[in-house]
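Example 9 (inverse folding). The structure is encoded as follows.
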C-alpha cells in the first residue's frame, strides 16, 4: 500500500559481500492517490533495534574490535594523506573501513578544536601519543550505533568496533511510535472520507437512476398521448400494428 524508497549510503565489500546502509540524510516515500496526496517519510530506525543489533550477522561481526583503516585520498602520497586525515579529524569528520568486511563508514563527531557545547572525547589527540581516539554516533541499517576506536597518525590504521547506542535508540523508538501513529491516524481519516464519498456517490447514483426512469416513463408526445414506443426494445409485428392503429 505504501511505496517507500530509502536514500542511504550502501557499501558492499569483503569476501562476504556484506552491505550497509548509513543515514546522515532522510529518505522519502510516497503513498499517492489522485486526491488527496499523502506523503510519508521513511522511518529512520527499525522496530526492536536491540534485537537486530544482537542477532544480525553484520552487527555481530562489527561489534567485535577489529582492524580499521583510513580510506580517504588513497591516490595521494602518504604524507599528504596523514595531513588530510588529521585536518579532517580536527574539523569533525573522517572516513574509515573495517578491514575484515570492507564496510565503509563516514564518521562525524565533535571537532577536536571545539571549545564548548560538544564532547571533546569524541576526538581526542591527547589520550595516547601518536594516536587519535574517536567516537561517532550514526544510524546504520536502521539501528542507532556508536563507533568507537583509535587510529595511528602515521600508519593511518587502528582498531575499532560498533556499540549499540541505547540512549539514542530509545529516543528514535519514541519518534518511530509517534510517526506510525500519525500515519495510521491520517490513513483512518482518509478511509473515513473515502467511505463518506462512496456512500454519497452511491446515494446520488440511486436517486439519479429513479429520476431518470421516472422522467422517461411519463414522457408526453406532441400529440398529448403517452409515448411508450422508445421503451420497447423488442416489438413483435402484431404489437406494432396495434400501436400504429392507436
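The amino acid assigned to each position is listed next.
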Amino acid at each position: 500500500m505504501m511505496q517507500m524508497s530509502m536514500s542511504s549510503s550502501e557499501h558492499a565489500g569483503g569476501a562476504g559481500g556484506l552491505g550497509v546502509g548509513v543515514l546522515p540524510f532522510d529518505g522519502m516515500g510516497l503513498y499517492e492517490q489522485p486526491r488527496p496526496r499523502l506523503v510519508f517519510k521513511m522511518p529512520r530506525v527499525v522496530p526492536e533495534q536491540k534485537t537486530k543489533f544482537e542477532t544480525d550477522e553484520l552487527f555481530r561481526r562489527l561489534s567485535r574490535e577489529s582492524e580499521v583503516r583510513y580510506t580517504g585520498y588513497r591516490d595521494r602520497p602518504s604524507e599528504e594523506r596523514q595531513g588530510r586525515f588529521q585536518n579532517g579529524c580536527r574539523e569533525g569528520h573522517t572516513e574509515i573501513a573495517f578491514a575484515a568486511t570492507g564496510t565503509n563508514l563516514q564518521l562525524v563527531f565533535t571537532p577536536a578544536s571545539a571549545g564548548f557545547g560538544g564532547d571533546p572525547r569524541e576526538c581526542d589527540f591527547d589520550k595516547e601519543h601518536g594516536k587519535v581516539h574517536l567516537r561517532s554516533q550514526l544510524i546504520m541499517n536502521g539501528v542507532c550505533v556508536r563507533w568507537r576506536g583509535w587510529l595511528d597518525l602515521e600508519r593511518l590504521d587502528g582498531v575499532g568496533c560498533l556499540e549499540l547506542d541505547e540512549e539514542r535508540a530509545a529516543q528514535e523508538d519514541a519518534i518511530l511510535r509517534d510517526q506510525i501513529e500519525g500515519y495510521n491516524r491520517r490513513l483512518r481519516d482518509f478511509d473515513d472520507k473515502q467511505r463518506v464519498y462512496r456512500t454519497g456517490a452511491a446515494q446520488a447514483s440511486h436517486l439519479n437512476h429513479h429520476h431518470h426512469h421516472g422522467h422517461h416513463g411519463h414522457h408526453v408526445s406532441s400529440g398529448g398521448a403517452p409515448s411508450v414506443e422508445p421503451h420497447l426494445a423488442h416489438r413483435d409485428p402484431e404489437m406494432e400494428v396495434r400501436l400504429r392503429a392507436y
